[in-house]
Amino acid sequence: MLARLHRAPNRLRRLVLSDAPAYFSSRLTSPKNPNRLIILDNIFPNEYSGFRVAEFHTYFDRLEDTKVYSTGAALFVAGDNRGLDQVIHNYEQRFPNYRGQVQAFNPYRRLQGGLAYSMFLDQVMAFLPVIERDRIPFAFTLYTLGGFFLDDANTIKKLRRINDSPYFRKIIVTQNVARDFINAGAYIDPAKMEFVYGVVTASDYLSKQLPTRRKFGQHKNTFDICFVGTKYMPRGEDKGYDVFIESAKALCRRRSDVRFHVIGRFDGSEMDTHELREKITYYGTQRTDFFPEFYAGMDIILSPGAPGKLQPGAFDSFPNGSCIEAGICGVAVFITDKLGQNMMLKDREDIVIVPYDVAQISDMIDDYLNRYDNLCALGEQGSATFRRVFGSEAQIEPRLRILQAAINANS
Questions:
Q1: What pTM value is reported for the model?
Q2: What is the 3-state secondary structure (H, E, C) of the chain?
Q3: Residues 6+ apart with CB under 8 A from 337
Q4: Residue stretches of the chain with pLDDT short of 50
Q5: What is the pLDDT of residue 16?
Q6: In the prediction, which pLDDT does 300 show?
Q7: Torsion angles phi and psi, residue 35, rounded to 5
Q8: What is the per-residue pLDDT for 31?
Q9: In whole angstroms, how far apart are CA 257 and each of 9, 216, 267?
């Protein structure tokens, strides 16, 4: 039929194609439900995006008739080459109670519901034409990256565009530096901003699945340090992979009993790791259910990231989701904080804030290795604090209240 259409006279072809969006949209209209939350995303239901799984599953369970429409455009970030249809099929096999709640996004589908919700600045901008076409109120969480950069002209333009939309209702900001940047420029109406420090993680699942921790000198003869991060650039400098590797080399020159573990799309080819040889292990990308047993054998998670590496104004959340999950599991968290984002964790009690310096990092780790009981106590205290600050009560409940209030306001 398409072939015949292309052979038709130009005038006829233009007439038919100009009516195509209306034709298809009239047949792809979501059933009316003024209480529905419509989630628009670009990678779900890929299960390696654990924070999405934790947050969206809560909405499935707690908010009436929640639907996710996904483009699958970012599946490559997780190294997922299955295709969106296969990802959805596998997801429904694993979570049959959510069957039918995730569908492929179709720009011709008319969205009808109480509220549209998305994450990350660029995602909102991508979906905004459809949101405004269908006149549906929307809210979003402003996580770091995803098109949001400090002191960036494009970021400012996007924020102002969103703020000017008559359908914009709420923005959930998760980091103090993002909040301060937005407020300083008055890019968003303050009445529409909500501040919820942190990120949603699978905190409840991790807390219930914790095996007995394996301690150095008691259950194992190695001191184990891990790095967990997504690879966005060749040497992983934004996440601090390069600093992690150099710190590992420095520690190996001092001790023979240290071992290193890397989670993410790193394989040792990014830098010269010949010096580490059998002392470093690469696991690839892993799902949430991999981590309780893995973290039970880890003594430290090292996250020496640096802002501005990926591009000017880029920065990560503090602490990042990997460190939160490791901290919940009792692993001592060693992390940089060059922008002063820490708000609720005590240095040397809940975490260890390290400088962005290989020599100093290796000195600090070696010192704690020689005071291993202190390191274990720090991990235990940190676990309790991480569960309190980043658990469901602190992270999910405020988001639920914000979204439910926005839905009710439009009913």
A1: 0.87
A2: CHHHHHHCCHHHHHHHHHHHHHHHHHCCECCCCCCCEEEEECCCCCCCCHHHHHHHHHHHHHCCCCEEEECCCCHHHHCCCCCHHHHHHHHHHHCHHHCCCEEECCCCCECCCCEEEEECHHHHHHHHHHHHHCCCCEEEEECCECCECCCCHHHHHHHHHHHHCCCEEEEEECCHHHHHHHHHHCCCCHHHEEECCCCCCCHHHHHHCCCCCCCECCCECCEEEEEECCCCCCCCCCCCHHHHHHHHHHHHHHCCCEEEEEECCCCCCCCCCCCCHHHEEEEECCCHHHHHHHHHCCCEEEECCCCCCCCCCCCCCCCCHHHHHHHHCCCEEEECCCCCCCCCCCECCCEEECCCCHHHHHHHHHHHHHCHHHHHHHHHHHHHHHHHHHCHHHHHHHHHHHHHHHHHHCC
A3: 318, 353
A4: 1-8, 10-26
A5: 39
A6: 98
A7: -100, 0
A8: 56
A9: 76, 10, 22
Task: Tell me how far apart the alpha carbons of residues 332 and 348 are, in angstroms, rounded to a whole number.
Answer: 10
d(Cα 43, Cα 45) in Å, to the nearest integer?
Answer: 6
- Cα–Cα distance between 331 and 223 in angstroms, integer? 12
| Degrees, nearest 5: CA angle 243-351-292 | 85
Tokens of 197: 């420090």
**Is 26 exposed, middle or buried (CB count within 10 Å of its CB: 0-12, 13-18, 19+)?**
exposed
Which has the closest alpha carbon to 341: 175, 144, 131?
175
In order of start, what are the domains of the chain with their CATH numbers?
25-201+393-409 (3.40.50.11930), 203-390 (3.40.50.2000)
- Tell me the backbone φ, ψ of residue 247, rounded to 5 degrees: -65, -40
